[in-house]
């Protein structure tokens, strides 16, 4: 087995042996699907006004926040918990090549995130579209499957992004204090300010919304963007790679 493979196996073992991790991740799936159904029920007979053409897939994903919060916290804890407890020294002793250790942590985060993101994305979709009834769409409709996969990709990338940020900051409280506003408050605040919309549209949560849309929102409607799904994926990937690069640089300089 390669060094990276052995390190990845070790990181997955750490995640697997913490029972509370799986309870919380499983609960996140259930709550995300349930919240998607409840929000869809409230919107079924009263589509949101001022948001352009009716987009049942995007509306069904308004309840995805719960799954995103849990995955972001998990991505942070994969790294910050070891710095807080001091076990990072043991990890570095077992895997002296820091790039390999960090790659293993990032891959472990991605692997766990996929296990959570896929059922969350598909479950929320089917729950919402069932509630919407005639106003809903099927998975075979135009852009629907792409949007569902986009929702899953958004969850996975944000989990890995959080892992990179945690490696840079090495503090759970500091990481969450920065990530929560960036990922969850922009849509309700900065995204609605026309004066700075040209910049805030490139923040992660806005790109994530575009990935989950089947109807593009151009200028003139709330939360408009100058890019489509392909551009949104590139933006999210760029944020994730930037965070991972920053995390690697900090880990290389970390004095254990």
UniProtKB/TrEMBL annotation:
Identification of the protein by name: ABC transporter permease
Q: Which Pfam families match?
A: ABC2_membrane_4
User: Which residue windows are transmembrane per the record?
Assistant: 21-41, 61-81, 102-127, 147-166, 173-191, 230-251
| Coiled-coil features, chain-numbered ranges | none
Q: Which UniProt keywords apply?
A: Membrane, Transmembrane, Transmembrane helix
């Amino acid at each position: 087995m390669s060094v990276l493979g052995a390190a990845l196996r070790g990181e997955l073992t750490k995640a697997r042996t913490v029972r509370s991790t799986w309870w919380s991740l499983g609960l996140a799936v259930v709550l995300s699907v349930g919240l998607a159904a409840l929000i869809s029920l409230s919107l079924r007979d009263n589509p949101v006004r001022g948001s352009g053409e009716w987009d049942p897939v995007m509306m069904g994903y308004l309840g995805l926040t719960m799954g995103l919060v849990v995955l972001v916290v998990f991505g942070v804890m994969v790294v910050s918990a070891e710095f807080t407890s001091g076990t990072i020294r043991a990890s570095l002793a077992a895997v002296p090549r820091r790039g390999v250790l960090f790659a293993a942590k990032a891959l472990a985060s991605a692997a766990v995130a996929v296990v959570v993101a896929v059922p969350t994305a598909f479950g929320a979709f089917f729950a919402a579209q069932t509630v919407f009834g005639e106003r809903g769409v099927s998975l075979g409709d135009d852009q629907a499957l792409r949007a569902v996969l986009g929702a899953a990709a958004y969850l996975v990338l944000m989990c890995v992004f959080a892992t990179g940020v945690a490696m840079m900051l090495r503090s759970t409280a500091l990481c969450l204090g920065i990530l929560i506003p960036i990922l969850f408050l922009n849509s309700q605040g900065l995204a609605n300010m026309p004066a700075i919309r040209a910049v805030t549209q490139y923040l992660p949560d806005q790109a994530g919304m575009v990935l989950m849309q089947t109807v593009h929102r151009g200028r003139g409607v709330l939360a408009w963007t100058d890019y489509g799904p392909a551009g949104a994926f590139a933006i999210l990937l760029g944020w994730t790679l930037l965070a991972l690069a920053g995390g690697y640089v900090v880990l290389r300089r970390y004095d254990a």
